[in-house]
Specification:
385 residues; 12 helices; five-stranded mixed sheet; 28% helix; globular; L-arginine/glycine Amidinotransferase, Chain A
């Protein structure tokens, strides 16, 4: 990337909130995603479930002003994962990696019984008191996307933000409030469609997302959408990035990662193998490099290699989990040529006292995600310990 190339970006100020985008919002705001007839019918059925269960779906008052999203690199009390038979090998790898670091809270997809899961953890060798099973059945194992966003209230207490889950899986949509009830954490339900992988924060008001957030909320004026992010997550700067061209989720965690309050990893494609994706990532990196954080310092951008995609499969190294001083970085059986360089990027981007370990995510990535998508760090003010 030529750091001297001019940045073509959009910026608008809404009160105390500065909004940045690689492309003007009119190019992505108000685009209605197509909805097949089968999905439209399911949406009708899900809407009736939501109406009948307001304690899990009805919007609440917003959190108090001064609430902030917690940075993933900050200390957490537990990691939340879901167990599904189809991905049990990968889940076993994840449990072995996470449990030595922090307790794990587990829920089960609808086809799994508690007895089956108990047999699985014993056979895998990870059974013990640091696994807490909550018998809350749901549909999917991508906890990052349907789970709550951990925030810190102005008085220091932990709380959850429960966004609307923009998929036709109503049980998943109800999980953040169900978790909050089970764990004794305050919850605030917000009528904005957001999957967790589309958002990240440096914990001090710098929030990064993609144009997918606006596309998922076509009925909301752009100012209303962005001011809501300011109100409930404490965003003072909100940056909209471009996703890789064929990557199906449109999530920022597939190509970027905050490793500290002032450092972010951004993917880098080979411009010969993937010219359009390389251009997208270079524009993202250039925009981020202009963002100023405390005392006027510029955000530090560290580039990390992205293997060439195979169709819609993007083997992302940024789809990692940061837990209490350890980075769990996905690796893959295929295309290992850039693995060493990716791990070195983490070592350069993380604080010196962090360690880097790997988790084989080959089985998960073909489904559209990796380590970050399948696990969610939770701030509980120590209630699970």
């Amino acid at each position: 990337m030529d750091d001297e190339t001019p940045v073509t970006a959009y910026r608008v100020q809404y009160g105390d909130l500065a909004v940045f985008a690689v492309t003007p919002p009119e190019e992505f705001v108000g685009r209605f995603p197509s909805m097949p007839p089968k999905r439209a019918k399911q949406e009708e059925l899900d809407a009736s479930v939501r109406r009948e269960n307001p304690n899990f779906f009805a919007p609440t008052d917003p959190p108090p002003r001064g609430t902030r999203a917690v940075g993933e690199f900050e200390r957490v009390d537990a990691v939340y994962m879901a167990f599904d038979v189809a991905t049990e090998k990968f889940t076993g790898e994840m449990l072995r990696a996470v449990l030595p670091i922090t307790p794990v809270i587990v829920t089960l997809t609808g086809e799994v019984s508690p007895q089956y899961f108990g047999d699985f953890v014993r056979a895998t060798g990870v059974a013990g008191p640091d696994i807490r099973l909550l018998e809350l059945l749901h549909d999917n194992f991508w906890t990052r996307d349907f789970g709550p966003v951990s925030v810190e209230l102005p008085d220091g207490r932990a709380a959850f933000i429960d966004f609307s889950y923009p998929q036709t899986r109503v049980l998943d949509d109800g999980m953040p409030s169900a978790l909050a009830l089970a764990l004794g954490v305050p919850v605030f339900r917000v009528p904005v469609r957001l999957e967790g992988g589309v958002f990240m924060s440096n914990g001090q008001g710098l929030c990064v997302t993609t144009t997918t957030l606006a596309v998922a909320n076509p009925e909301l004026p752009f100012e209303v959408l962005t001011r809501t992010m300011e109100e409930v997550l404490g965003c003072r700067q909100l940056v909209f990035l471009e996703s890789p061209r064929e990557e199906a989720t449109g999530h920022v965690d597939m190509f970027a990662k905050f490793t500290s309050r002032d450092t972010i990893l951004v993917g880098s494609f080979d411009p010969v193998q993937s010219p359009e994706d390389a251009a997208h990532m270079d524009r993202n990196a250039r925009l981020l490099s202009t963002i100023r954080i405390g005392l006027g310092r510029k955000l530090r951008v560290v580039r990390i290699p992205m293997p060439a995609p195979e169709g819609s499969v993007y083997r992302s190294y940024t789809n990692s989990l940061l837990v209490n001083g350890t980075a769990l970085v996905p690796t893959y059986d295929r295309d290992q040529s850039e693995e060493a360089e990716a791990l070195d990027a983490y070592r350069r981007a993380l604080p010196d006292d962090w360690r880097v370990i790997t988790v084989n995510a080959s089985d998960a990535i073909v489904l559209g995600g990796a380590v970050h998508c399948a696990a969610l760090e939770l701030r509980l003010t120590g209630r699970t310990r």
